[in-house]
Amino acid sequence: MDFAPSPRSAELTERVRTFMRDEIAPVEPAVHQEIVRRREAGEDRWTPSPVIGELKARARAAGLWNLFLPVEHAGRYAADFGTDGGEGLSNVDYAPIAEAMGSSMLAPLVFNCNAPDTGNMEVLLRYGSDEQRARWLEPLLAGEIRSAFCMTEPEVASSDATNMAATAVLDGDDVIINGTKWFSTGVGNPECRILIFMGVTDPTADRHARHTMVLVPIDTPGVRVDRLLTTMGYHDEPLGHGEVSFDDVRVPASNIILGPGRANEIAQGRLGPGRVHHCMRAIGLAERALELGVRRALERTAFGRPLAKLGGNSERIADARIAINRSRLLVLHAAWLLDQGLTSGRAERRGMSSGRAERRGISAAAVSAVSEIKVEVPNMALDVIDLAIQLHGGAGLTDDFPLAAAWVGARSLRLADGPDEVHRGVVARIELGKYRNGGHR
Amino acid sequence: MDFAPSPRSAELTERVRTFMRDEIAPVEPAVHQEIVRRREAGEDRWTPSPVIGELKARARAAGLWNLFLPVEHAGRYAADFGTDGGEGLSNVDYAPIAEAMGSSMLAPLVFNCNAPDTGNMEVLLRYGSDEQRARWLEPLLAGEIRSAFCMTEPEVASSDATNMAATAVLDGDDVIINGTKWFSTGVGNPECRILIFMGVTDPTADRHARHTMVLVPIDTPGVRVDRLLTTMGYHDEPLGHGEVSFDDVRVPASNIILGPGRANEIAQGRLGPGRVHHCMRAIGLAERALELGVRRALERTAFGRPLAKLGGNSERIADARIAINRSRLLVLHAAWLLDQGLTSGRAERRGMSSGRAERRGISAAAVSAVSEIKVEVPNMALDVIDLAIQLHGGAGLTDDFPLAAAWVGARSLRLADGPDEVHRGVVARIELGKYRNGGHR
Amino acid sequence: MDFAPSPRSAELTERVRTFMRDEIAPVEPAVHQEIVRRREAGEDRWTPSPVIGELKARARAAGLWNLFLPVEHAGRYAADFGTDGGEGLSNVDYAPIAEAMGSSMLAPLVFNCNAPDTGNMEVLLRYGSDEQRARWLEPLLAGEIRSAFCMTEPEVASSDATNMAATAVLDGDDVIINGTKWFSTGVGNPECRILIFMGVTDPTADRHARHTMVLVPIDTPGVRVDRLLTTMGYHDEPLGHGEVSFDDVRVPASNIILGPGRANEIAQGRLGPGRVHHCMRAIGLAERALELGVRRALERTAFGRPLAKLGGNSERIADARIAINRSRLLVLHAAWLLDQGLTSGRAERRGMSSGRAERRGISAAAVSAVSEIKVEVPNMALDVIDLAIQLHGGAGLTDDFPLAAAWVGARSLRLADGPDEVHRGVVARIELGKYRNGGHR
Amino acid sequence: MDFAPSPRSAELTERVRTFMRDEIAPVEPAVHQEIVRRREAGEDRWTPSPVIGELKARARAAGLWNLFLPVEHAGRYAADFGTDGGEGLSNVDYAPIAEAMGSSMLAPLVFNCNAPDTGNMEVLLRYGSDEQRARWLEPLLAGEIRSAFCMTEPEVASSDATNMAATAVLDGDDVIINGTKWFSTGVGNPECRILIFMGVTDPTADRHARHTMVLVPIDTPGVRVDRLLTTMGYHDEPLGHGEVSFDDVRVPASNIILGPGRANEIAQGRLGPGRVHHCMRAIGLAERALELGVRRALERTAFGRPLAKLGGNSERIADARIAINRSRLLVLHAAWLLDQGLTSGRAERRGMSSGRAERRGISAAAVSAVSEIKVEVPNMALDVIDLAIQLHGGAGLTDDFPLAAAWVGARSLRLADGPDEVHRGVVARIELGKYRNGGHR
Fold first, then answer.
1. Cβ–Cβ below 8 Å for A315 and C311
2. Which CATH number characterizes residue A406's domain?
3. N or C: chain A end with fewer CB closer than 10 Å?
4. Residue C417 covered by a domain
5. Could you give the CA distance from residue C283 to residue B326 in angstroms, rounded to a whole number?
6. How far is residue B355's CA from residue C288's CA, in Å, rounded to a whole number?
């Protein structure tokens, strides 16, 4: 057992941290305040700040680009699109890098490692045709365009995919798309050019074979971004969460990914590592919040002592430290478990529903672990950020500090990619399964 | 012991609920959505909707106006300014009415019972000179103008009043005011005309005799609303939380309330009932959230069952019911304890700091009770609203439902009027005091 | 709304507290230590200390006897068996008295107000025949004998009564009893003479009409106390929790209470007020624990300060105070709701299952309230007692202080009379029922 | 980063688990029930069951003996006293073995790996003179005698060592010992022959140089075991927690360990790995409890479904799984951090107080990590065991299942080796220290 990161991971993490400290940190507050100013003034705040473009160019030049690329799929893209060393990273090697990036709202964009683009790029990498990759993956890897993922719907509980109402019906060489999607993150941004849409193709098929994923250029006739949703008052500019309607949208059947009825496979393959990334970034966010909270608690005084010395504050700070540390280890372990499956040549087995994954031999421990961190980490981050807000007093609620937005981001994660309750259900099912029929572990 | 409300309280509560159901509920969503629309469009959303003005007129005509007026101070104002029955209400009689109003963002404004105006009116009622009352209290009671309270400051931990940096210095017949205040709720609204400013007059005086409260018309030269703060992304239109700077602002010394160095007395007298009102409204908010959550949990289905039947949802709903009920009783009891002091002719003793209050015989139980609810209720409301959000899925985070804004409102209450930690300190001090020196309860 | 106790309640509470302070407190530690000593030495610790007998005589002489007697059923027994004033008390009037008694392990025994005897006496009072009352109720009221209640069984989840396996089969003028019961509290005590046994009479009847309650003298052939169970290491001497087997036990059919198949009615009538009593005593226990914890925190010093001033201790003490206060109010309110049903001449409706109760008009609010306190109070008491233990250091775990035993008693209450989860289910069912079919509250 | 155990650790863990399944599990319930029977009957239950002696012999023969021996100190003892492979284990290699043992009350005794003997043996191994080792360490390693550690005192808050009242005064070639110690675990056992006593030698010395540790044979005149304490009703036979008085006890000065005034060094060196062992065993205990709880939840039915399917039970089981997994990783990481210090030749630096350790270069991360697990793990275990008890209903409180005793054991750990609050203080101090003086991490 060895808790030390690999030399490559350690070195990249250090370089990312240095870049963030030297290049991003000095300009981030201004970028953020400019968005706030525009929001207040009713000006456009969706067009990304030119500062982001400049930072992206510098990050790419520094070889700190597309670090999310998974080692088993990166192939030539790692070399062509700037990943340092010319190959991808395992989940456990990427994890500390994602944590570092997560402490900043800007960094994931700068390093071309932000959701949902990373997940969409992974989909194309793993399941896209050569044509699809050439047309969409390469400009995404180059950071020239952005993408969105259109899955959940406003009218139904989307945690149960069988509730999905939107359709993707084959019609000769085309596929016709109808329905309304929401929480399509990224569609606010004018650089967003391509949507991955998921809809029902054959409602009579097996539960896992009904849905299809289709690439839909955002400028296809019939596609309309109806509005941009707030999450607790925030728009998450410059990405935005859109409600998008599809009204008899017609695209060539060659835009279907992997094949009709195979959306479920893709969704599962997309979500596992994506959840690990989300969780690692959330840990970085919690670390940043704790740092801000502790600094404030040392600087501000009341009743003659720094806040850090008053009442239960120091014990709460200790609990936050414990909570972050244990969550980080849980995520690293989940990343490692995912890697174990992959490095044993079982890559082809990913892309199944959790039940099927287990039936076909993928580690139930890995399936459980991903759901475990999905429950654990956002809740942990919320507690830590809330403490930091409280230590800031009223200021913690304002946009003078990144804490309020951080809290909202972490809160969203308790619902995005499946609510806590669904993930607890997965963990429980696997736990109960160990003992069913009187079985032994 | 009798948990039934008095007939007058029950009847007024019922009439308020009926008015809200028949007059406010049908228009509230549109008022809210119009603010959201204007916010998105960068249009003015501070000028209150004309609908609010119409509802105010109807509420006043119905005798449901200024119901917050405290029975021991209402005097002729109750008769002149529309309180039904011509007299004020005790805290325990007003409590269920405040709860009813709290379930709506609009209702407190409509019934002229919103913070901070109620607190400011109470200050003038109790401590204002005849001239001050004629000039400022009467238009406030008439709902013609609004007011703000300028106490906390951005540069210091304001939970410790000795940290306060702003000054109110006597200069002949004038008082000269300098400093920066923030979280001055209401200054966004163009109807806001008068500020109650608190500043240091004599830094060498006893800790409880340093500060002075002064009435400052908002259009006095040197007063500037520098910006309107967000709380977790929300501006709370049409009131707003302002950062206000005072730069050599000069007003007549007759604008001082009660006298130089007496701000502390006023602040304490203002905050007790105000905290009870806040807490009762927060209970109304929690009830509304639970109702929305339960309805959603019954309507939406996943995996073949309504959400209400899945996993731990029903147990969480039960816990929310228990939490609301116990919090409500705690607030009602605190209101009753406050009333006990008042109805025993000890009114003159109010207006002291908690320590002095106790030394001079005001019930430590009442002092503790107000701090107890200040800790208990906002935290309870946050838990209940969070559950309701979770039951709504992603929709719960949007402004399609009032839950996100409700959560933010409750979160602010953990800091407004003193953070949790300070109130726990008050409760602890009183609890420890029972046993000090080997004493018996 | 009036939170002041009635004069009679206040006066009796004060007299009980005085008696406890003057008569019980001075001898309680010795009684307790003697039980510990005998336990260690392997001597008999089931025969009650003669001190208890003397205290009982003095309590009865002081008119502080059988105060649990419910006003609507006390009848002549209140006068004959010592209740001061010659009549019973409402639930809300008895509640503060039960709280006072709950702070001592001995007091409930001394005042003849301990479980399960109070519940058993209530059963006989409400449902017993004249003959049954003369033979068993009168000596119980006189404190001459004790009783036990035999309901739960080791082999099944007893929270679902349909799981019950023990039988009570009619055979001519007799009833024949078979089965194994456990957690039959009181059978360790040699004064225990009568058991109330519950078993299946007609397994084909409606779910609510299958079971029968029968009075079984403990010396009937075939009755055997197989062992006395520990709860977390404690035997709760001098009562004890027995596992009791019934092997072809034959008693006359006149020993059936109310009639065959009517056990469910009786159980429900027995449990409502019983749960209120349990909860009030638990609040007294929590108060006692908090007092001990605070005193210890003031007396012991570490790192130069009393424990009360270290870290989060004072905030935790504040939270404990808040928790006790809100729980007490919740129980008082539940007691008041029960009284409302009773004082409206709806006494005949008690004795139904919660579902049937509601169908026939008994307040769902009261049914919910009793389940709410059953969840709330033991958990609250556990938290407070645990804090007190922690403040005592290792000593808190020993029998030098009553805290360890208090914790175990409160822990048992999370299972006795139905586990938390079942009561949350009742609360949730009623809450969901308010909105089903789109209904309004 | 590699989460796989080393081959040697994995192999030994597997062999320990197999031995436990085949040799210990079949007899453990009977050993336990015999202790319960004797306790009830007032018979001797301190003399260990002969079964334990037989199992010890078999464990030693199997090479599963003294596995706790630390690799850097094991020396020849590993070869002479049965550790398989002839050398000791690192903390991270021993951790999974300790977890395995922790699931049984008997296993640590059987494998000669139980507290406090392991800690005492480590003290002698690291700090004992050759003579001390020959006389006391060797029979301890052989499992022929037992030992106790006499540190905490009944009259003071022992978490602050400066409170200590007992004395160890040099008198010529002797040292004279006086005072009262308690929670001296192991003194109930007739095999206990040697005590490690800690007392004040020079009250005027620096805080860290006042205390001395002395080896005191239990049969030395003046040593008396005054009583055996219960922890929540349990005696933890066959070890027992003793209150021990020392009345002018005289032993040769050669019985002093390391030297006068050096107790603090020894205590710190003893406690670090000891806390890791305690925590790993507690994780094994929690795993065992969860297994029992899940099995029960699958077997018992109520309302027509297994308990596992009712209400929030499955979500609680998921939360327990998450909690155990994250705690285990936190402990493994702490063990690894300890090993890092040791394997870098910094062994000589152990044995300092945490503050001095840091000043001299030992990783603050390791000091914090040990305190983090000391807070995290017992609390986690309590929650999991409590859930398992609740799923068992009343049975969970009895001694028919090991859950009640397990809960009490975990509860004791929140106080043993320093209460939670003290350890939170250590974690907070290190966290705050990162940012003091505006410093960066």
1. yes
2. 1.20.140.10
3. C
4. yes
5. 14
6. 26
The identity of residue C341, as a single letter, is G
Parent domain of B197? 147-255
> How far apart (Å, rounded) are the C-alpha atoms in residues A415 and B392?
10
3-state class (DSSP) for residue B425: helix
Domain boundary among A128, A156, A187: A128
Residues C278, C424 within the same domain: yes
DSSP reduced 3-state for D410: helix
User: Measured between alpha carbons, how far is D165 from D180 in angstroms, rounded to an integer?
Assistant: 8
pLDDT band at A42 (very low <50, low <70, confident <90, very high): confident
Cβ neighbours of residue A304 closer than 8 Å, sequence gap 6 or more:
none
Residue whose structure tokens are 């089903």: C436
Instruction: List chains adjacent to chain A, taking adjacency as at least 3 C-beta pairs closer than 8 Å.
Output: B, C, D
What distances in angstroms separate CA A289 from CA A241, B72, B416, one per listed residue? 24, 47, 21
Task: Establish if C138 belongs to a structural domain.
Answer: no
The answer to whether position C30 is within a domain reads: yes
Look at residue C258 in the predicted model and tell me its pLDDT: 96
Residue C364 has φ and ψ, to the nearest 5°, of: -60, -30
Which 8-state DSSP code applies to residue B20? I
Please tell me the distance from the alpha carbon of residue C44 to that of residue C48, in angstroms, as a whole number.
Answer: 10
Q: Give, in order, the Cα–Cα distances in Å from A373 to each of A5, A337, A406, C22, D229.
A: 20, 12, 18, 58, 42
Residue pair A79/A33 in contact (Cβ under 8 Å)? The answer is no
- What's the CA gap between A424 and C158, in Å, rounded? 27
A314 touches chain B (CB under 8 A): no
CA-wise closest residue to B284 among B87, B5, B17, B6: B17
In sequence order, the 6+-apart residues with CB closer than 8 A to the CB of A206 are: none
Token representation of residue A355: 């039940």
Q: Which one of A128, A161, A193 terminates a domain?
A: A128
Cβ–Cβ gap B315/D311 under 8 Å: yes
Question: Residue C350: its pLDDT value, please?
Answer: 41
| Neighbouring residues of A167: CB distance < 8 A, sequence distance ≥ 6 | A176, A177, A178, A179, A199, A200, A201
Picking from B140, B6, B133, B39, the residue whose alpha carbon sits closest to that of residue B81 is: B140
Query: Residue C211 has which token pair?
Result: 């079971």
Contact A146, A193 (CB under 8 A): yes
Q: How far is the C-alpha of C168 from the C-alpha of C150, rounded, in Å?
A: 12
Structure tokens at D69: 């021996």
State whether A157 and B302 contact (CB < 8 Å): yes
Q: How many domains does chain A have?
A: 3
Same domain, D167 and D70: no
Give pLDDT < 70 ranges for chain C.
Answer: 343-362, 437-441
CB contact (8 A) between residue B319 and residue C5: no
Q: Which chain B residues in 94-153 lie under 8 Å from chain A, judged by CB atoms?
A: 152
Q: Could you report how far apart the first and last alpha carbons of chain B are, in Å?
A: 22
Selection from C10, C110, C97, C18 nearest residue C55 by Cα: C110
Q: Which residues contact B11 (CB under 8 A, 6 or more apart)?
A: none
What CATH number has the domain bearing residue D203? 2.40.110.10
Q: How far apart are CA A43 and CA A34, in angstroms?
A: 10
D276, A413 contact by CB (below 8 A): no
Using 50, 70 and 90 to split pLDDT, how confident is the model at A148?
A: very high
Taking a contact as any Cβ pair under 8 Å apart, which residues of chain D between 357 and 396 contact chain A? 368-369, 372, 375-376
Complex ipTM:
0.95
pLDDT confidence bin for B80, thresholds 50/70/90: confident
Q: Residue A215's closest CA among A143, A115, A132, A117? A: A132
Looking at the fold, whether A58 and A87 belong to one and the same domain comes out as yes
For residue C5, cis peptide bond before it (omega within 30 degrees of 0): no
Average pLDDT, chain A: 92
Q: How many residues appear in chain A?
A: 441
Residue B397 to residue A414: CA distance in whole angstroms: 11
